[in-house]
Amino acid sequence: MLEIIHSGLHTSIQDLGRLHYRNVGVPVAGVMDEYHAKLVNQLLGNDENSAVMEMTLQGATVEFHEATQMVICGADLSPKLNHQAIRLNVPVTVKKGDVLQFGKRLYGVRAYLAVKHGFQTENILKSRSFYDGITPKARVEKGDFIPYQTNSNPVKASANIALQRALFTDTEITVYEGPEFNYLSKTQQEKLFNTTFTIGLNNRMAYQLEEILENDCPSIITSAVLPGTIQLTPSGKLIILMKDCQTTGGYPRILQLDQKSIFKLAQKHTRDAIIFKKLSIL
Q: Which of 75, 133, 174, 279 could pair with 111 in a Cys bridge, judged by C-beta atoms 3.0 to 4.6 Å apart?
């Protein structure tokens, strides 16, 4: 068991999500930054879909009640084990009673903690991902106990993993045309790809952008959306849907992020700048 001493800002258990229930209105959920979530499991020899702990901006404080190995990847939130700094992207052996805590955020937004064999929370609709309304809660709370399998056999550390800095620093977000892209005039399309946008309010459901794109598009009937869909609201605001988004929406879907750009956006914060680059479908 892992005990939550301090929950952090928004900490939850996630795997790769509920991939086969969108037809009945169940959101995908799952990790926001799939690249680092898969990496953290890979470094422990886990299945890539093993459940991990996702921490946003501020890390949790946790106590390990059984021996295991852990790895932390993604954002650098200054992790410490028993008050001693530890490295990212390297397996670390922990003993019963060890305490993991975090400090100052140095870069990135979301950090991922994995333990050997993954966290063993309740599996609902073939996923352990927290989502309010599907699981009992959307985030961990102080006093929670998160189960995992005891493991005292050390994992051999791999060669140093090179930090993919572009996933944290690159402002370019690559996109495909959405189903309603051609509702935009040529002038609007040019503005879309020649404007530096600023991230506004954001969470696991969606990222709002501050700048306005005039919207004179015809209305659409409610249609399917998925993580990475960019909707243009009647006010001209752009909304980028993320992992906890709904399965349908009624705003024009003008762009669609590719997978890598979803990971990059998940590591960006309020007031960060982004620009869109259009990809071609061969």
A: 75
Whether the CB-CB separation of 228 and 178 falls below 8 Å is answered with no
| 233-260 per-residue burial string, b: 16 or more CB within 10 A, e: under 16 | eeeebbbbbbbbbeeebebbbbbbbeeb
H or E segment to which residue 69 belongs: strand 68-76
Place of tokens 């990135």: 108
- Residue 243 corresponds to which amino acid? K
Rounded to a whole number of angstroms, the distance between the first and last alpha carbons of the chain is 49
> Quick one: pLDDT at residue 282?
58
**Are the C-beta atoms of 225 and 240 separated by less than 8 Å?**
no
> Cα 176 vs. chain centroid, distance in angstroms?
20
Yes or no: is domain 170-278 CATH 2.40.100.10? yes
Ramachandran quadrant class, 84 (left: phi over 0; alpha: psi -120 to 50; beta: rest): beta
User: Which tens digit of pLDDT belongs to each residue from 106-143?
Assistant: 999 999 999 999 999 999 999 999 999 999 999 999 99
Q: How far apart are CA 248 and CA 25, in angstroms?
A: 8
User: For the chain, how are helix, strand and coil distributed in percent, rounded to 5?
Assistant: 10, 35, 55
In the chain, where the domains are located: 2-146, 170-278
Chain center to CA of 158: 24
